Each structure stands twice: as C-alpha cells, then as structure tokens.
Amino acid sequence: MFTLHFSDPACRDVRETGGKAKSLADMTANELPVAPGFAVTAEAYRHFLGSTGLGETIGRVLDEPLDPHDLAALERTGEELMRAVRATALPEDVTESIRDAYASLCSETGLEDVSVAVRSSATSEDSAGASFAGEFETWVDVTGAEDVIAHVLKCYESVFAPRVLGYAIEQDLDPRTIEMAVVIQKVVRARAAGVMFTLSPTSGDRSKIVLEASWGLGLSVVGGEVTPDRFLVEKIGLEIADRTPGDKRIEYRTGTAPTPVEESRWTELCLDDAEVIALATLGKRLERIHGSAQDIEFAVDEELPEGANIVLLQCRPETVWSGAERKPAFDASAGMMSWITGSISGGTTPPGHTHDLAHKHSA
C-alpha cells in the first residue's frame, strides 16, 4: 500500500509509516480526536527509488566514504543527491494513490482542496529514524493534490540534505537505510484554543478540571497577551461549576502577528457549554488512559463540523504538582505555525522548512 489513512490498522506499523504517523494512528485507534489525515508509506519511497533507478544512483554516490566533519564534502554530496531526487518524477501509481487519498481527505473534511501540513516521518532498517527528530522538513498550508505530490517529493529530497547525511554518519548509520514515510494532515484552523488540566493547577484539587481558552490559536494564552476565559468543571458529574470571562482583545488567526478582536467579543466566552463538557469528558478519559493527571492542549477547528471540531494538539502528564520539568508544545516566541503543526505526535516546525524548536510555557 502506498497510502494509509490514520484509521487503517496498518498505519500503526512504525516500519512503514514512521514515528509521527504511528502516533497519530494509535490515537485514532483509541478514538482520540486528532486532525484527520493519511500517511504515504515507506513502501512508496522504496518503489520510487527502485522503479526509477534512483536507488542505484544514490548507491554509487554513497559508495564513496564521507567524513561527517568535512562540511564541504557533505554539502557537495548532499546537493548532488538532492538534485537527482528533484529531477526524478514519482511513479504514476504512487501519485494516483496520493491523489485518491487526498480526495478522500477533502471529502472527509467537507473542504475542497483542504489545506494540509506535509510532514516527514522517517524510518530506517535499524529503527534509528526516531533519533532524526528535527532533522527533516515540514510544510504547512499545502493545498491541492498536485502540490501535495510535489511536497512529498521534497520530503524525499530532505533525506539527503547535508545535515542529515552528516548526522547519519555520526550515528554510524548508512544513509541508504533511511526510508521516508510522509504524514499528510489537515491544518488546524482554530476558532478557539487553550489548555486543560485534569486537576486544579493552583490548588492541586483532583476533583476539578480547569480549562483556559481564548479566541484563535493558543499563542495569546501562553504568551500572556490576553486574560483567557476560565472554566471550572466538577470531575464527578461533569457539571460546570464556574465560568469566568476573560479579556481577549487580540487573537492569532493566520500569519505570525496577532489581530485585534472586536469589542463585542472581548468578554464573550469563546467556548460554549457543550464544548466545555466535551473537553472535560475527553480529559477524564485521557487521565484514565494514562493513569495520572494530564495537561492537555486543544483547539476548536472552525472548518470541521460541530461535534467533530475538537482537536487534540498535545497531551502529557501534569507536572506542576509532581515537580517534574514541563515542556509544552507551543509558545509565542516560536511563532504561530510551529504551534499549528504541533500535535500529540510531537515534532513541530515553522513554515518553509525550519526545524523542531524547544517550547515552554508557564503554568
């Protein structure tokens, strides 16, 4: 199979889909809400190399030993291989499979030419692919089947980037054993977003669930640029005990800069009761799955239908009360796109091929 929807059990095979896709497939199998999408498998990559003769070309070039400290040689070799990949068209059976999977995603989301993130999800024969986090590329706001196909080829190209070759050699890994799967996932268009704790982050009270949210993406919340709406939910019975409107005068919609919020929405609650209860229900479920209090980042996607529009972005053990170091998924200094492409699956990158960033936000 050249493409696998996240809901396909075969998508959970890390050897065929890489770590990012496997994580998303695992969550989909557990009926956790993640942005929909599919993986282009490592089989498609192998077929690309084998059916075009490109694999033999790559093998000849890499037969010459490379010194990971010889940056000029890495640059020359990497550029030669990247040019070779760039000049080679994907096989028609692979492109047809991608077109079909993308059309299905458009149908699933109800969006014509749905905007997607195209994310590298590498694997290798010795399972070293996970150690390559941050070395490969992600692109966001890719629209149309032909553009998706072009960006899959860009992911294949990135296997031979000089920094990747150097890293592989340093790890005593033959670059020819790296195989590239690709994640194609709907970009989150957040009407509102925020954080949820399955205990009180101020008192540690485990009978409460606390949500904080604002309009647009969560950058304004974690960057302290707004006072978010705050919701307090009783864990037993899932009753909303308190709704405290915030003061939300800016929001992040697209781009890297905030936009003003019209005055009528400054103190209007950005989540309705049904969304709060749905999120709290999900929080309880995640706490049961993981066996501990959870710190969850979420968005309400304005492009998805009501009832299917809550999307998880990150979930990890709550650490304020356990005293452990906390590493959230997004922060204002990292830029909006690094946040939108982040998810529970880990690994976030800003637009246009920058790499994974360290993120933080305060409790």
Automatic annotation (TrEMBL):
InterPro entries: ATP_grasp_subdomain_1 (IPR013815), PEP_synth (IPR006319), PPDK_AMP/ATP-bd (IPR002192)
Record key words, sorted: ATP-binding, Kinase, Magnesium, Metal-binding, Nucleotide-binding, Transferase
Domain Pyruvate phosphate dikinase AMP/ATP-binding: 16-329
Annotated region (Disordered), positions in chain: 342-363
Keyword ATP-binding applies: yes
E.C. no: 2.7.9.2
Domain of life: Bacteria
Matches recorded under Pfam families: PPDK_N (PF01326)
Family affiliation: Belongs to the PEP-utilizing enzyme family.
Primary role: Catalyzes the phosphorylation of pyruvate to phosphoenolpyruvate.
Protein name, as recorded: Phosphoenolpyruvate synthase
